[in-house]
Amino acid sequence: MSDSRPVLVADSGIGGLSVAREIRKARPDLAMVYVADDAAFPYGNWREGELTDHVVDLVAGLAREHDPQAVVIACNTASTLVLPGLRARLQVPVVGTVPAVKPAAERTASGLISILATPGTVKRDYTFELIHQFAPEVAVTLVGATRLAALAEDKLGQRPVDPDLLAAEIAPCFKEKNGRRTDKIVLGCTHYPFLIEEMRQAAPWEVEWIDPAPAIARRLAAVIAPAGEGAARGRGDLYLRTSGSVAEGLPFIFDAPAPDGGSV
Ligand code: DGL
Q1: Domain total for the chain?
Q2: Are residues 85 and 28 located together in one domain of the fold?
Q3: Where does substrate bind (predicted)?
Q4: Same domain, yes or no: 46 and 80
């Protein structure tokens, strides 16, 4: 039996739309309630305890209001903290987004990978644990980018993206050691796939950029009821911004290309 309730997808801003577009591809029948917590952006700069309480309360409140069949925390910075608290509060599956360390470690030929994420995510025990578990033999460079998520917001807000600032933010990802070079960069923030063309242009050499969004969409599909025959959407999409507005439908970016090699 398919379920006509929507899926609640949450991020600090537009970043989670990179996950939402993969959900749409995997399950076009699902309605989504997308929350951009722009009043609290950027999550990357928040203190851990405060961010945890804030996101758990926000998402639990929205879940009461919108009765979703599942919740997707489409944000690495929040997912590294809030999943246990949310799972304790909600009766529906909660799917998180965490840096794709495992596929990067499995696919690297040079043994040098980088995790490009917010300053919050690169400091988390959760991230250290992923590295310890999945990349013990790999040289991992953690890069906490302070302005990249805001540059992605600029791009989708149709404001110019400063190329020098972007190049400076990604430069520490590119390492050379004993004739070997970084060959995989994990996009550890859901905002970054929207800057993939700019990052490719600014990169000193070619790398594979790894986006976990397709894997998150598959995970969601695995934990909810399958699409019923001729499944009709129970409700339409909603786009909520915590700074104020509510819109029917989701923004245009579903047509923007997803990064190659992102099929984790
Ligand atoms: N999109 C969020 C993530 O995946 C972070 C952006 C922010 O700092 O708010 O980590």
Answers
A1: 2
A2: yes
A3: 11-12, 43-44, 76-77, 190-191
A4: yes
Q: Given the residues 20, 112, 189, 238, select the one marked as catalytic.
A: 189
Ligand 1 site residues (CB inside 6 A) read 11-12, 15, 41-44, 75-77, 118, 121, 149, 189-191
Is residue 189 within 8 Å of 148, Cβ to Cβ?
yes
pLDDT digits (tens, 9 = 90+) for 160-193: 999 999 999 999 999 999 999 999 999 999 999 9
Query: Which CATH number is 144's domain given?
Result: 3.40.50.1860
Same domain, 221 and 153: no
| Predicted confidence (pLDDT) at residue 255 exceeds the cutoff of 60 | no
Q: Is the pTM of this model over 0.90?
A: yes
Closest CA to 15 of 31, 39, 37: 37
The whole-number pLDDT of residue 264 equals: 52
Phi, psi dihedral angles at 74 (to 5 degrees):
-90, 50
- Give the structural domain span for 239: 7-97+214-263
Question: Which of 156, 190, 192 is the pocket-test mutation for ligand 1 (most atoms within 8 Å of CB)?
Answer: 190
